[in-house]
Amino acid sequence: MDILKPEDLKYPGALIAVEGLDGSGKSTQIHLIKRWLELEGYKVFFTEWNSSLAVKPATRKGKKRNLLTPTTFCLIHCTDLADRYERQIEPLLRAGYIVLSDRYIYTALARDAVRNCDRGWVRRIYSFAVHPTITFFFKAPLEVALNRILSGRPKLKYHEAGMDLHLSEDLYESFRIFQGKINEEYLKLVDEYNMVVIDATQAVEKQQELLRKIIHEKIDLSRYKWRSFR
């Protein structure tokens, strides 16, 4: 069983997800979209990867003690999404909201593949999740993304750098190799899941203008306006 497509579940809501390497600018853009939709009076909800209040403490503890194998790493992130999906994403889609997701199932498909988890198995455990109405993939050259993230971080984290995979003893070189492998997996997913590719090297304002144009074209936003009861 593969990931559900929009036509499989007739939700009145819409789901917009952003994907891309760390440093690609996806979080900046989805927050700008959120603010725009809120100011225009649309029903909107925001969620982000690895943010379940029920799961986050266990994730933090596992990372701190280096207890996470590739399989448990995969399962704990899947549990995080499943919790948010059941409590937030699906109910709000049914209620007719625009749900914005900073990273979604494709983050798992890319990262878990790099951690050598079976691709078919990963897809099956995420088969509960509906495919987004629009998925934006922010494509940036690896060196551009790396420079952005490294210039903004005083120190990389162990798992963020893929040190658990023993790619290199050097933290920064491990991060470079890890991100390169993730990028290769992302590029395989773009066509398969019909992602909208955004040139992440363009100015922030130009990217935002393009995102709004695409959203207007693909979603009937008038359906998501808050209604006045006067």
Describe this structure in words.
Helix content is 49%, strand content 12%. It is of the alpha/beta class. Strands 2-3-1-4-5 form a 5-stranded parallel sheet, sandwiched between helices. α1 crosses α8 (204-218) and α4 crosses α7 (171-192). It is globular and about 55 Å long. The N and C termini lie far apart (47 Å). 33% of the residues are buried.
Helix content: 40-55%
Distance between the termini: 47 Å
Shape designation: globular
Strands, total number: 5
The CATH homologous superfamily corresponds to P-loop containing nucleotide triphosphate hydrolases
Gyration radius, in Å? 18 Å
CATH architecture, by name, is 3-Layer(aba) Sandwich
Q: In order across it, which strands form the biggest sheet?
A: 2-3-1-4-5
Overall structural domain count = 1
CATH topology: Rossmann fold
In percent, how much strand structure appears in the residues?
5-15%
Which series of helices and strands comes N to C?
EHEHHEHHEHHEH
- Secondary-structure-based class equals alpha/beta
**Low-confidence runs (pLDDT<50, min 5 residues)?**
1-8
How would you briefly describe this protein structure?
This protein has 230 residues and is α/β, with parallel strands linked by helices. It has eight helices and five strands, in the order βαβααβααβααβα. Helix 1 packs across helix 8 (204-218) and helix 4 (105-114) packs across helix 7 (171-192).
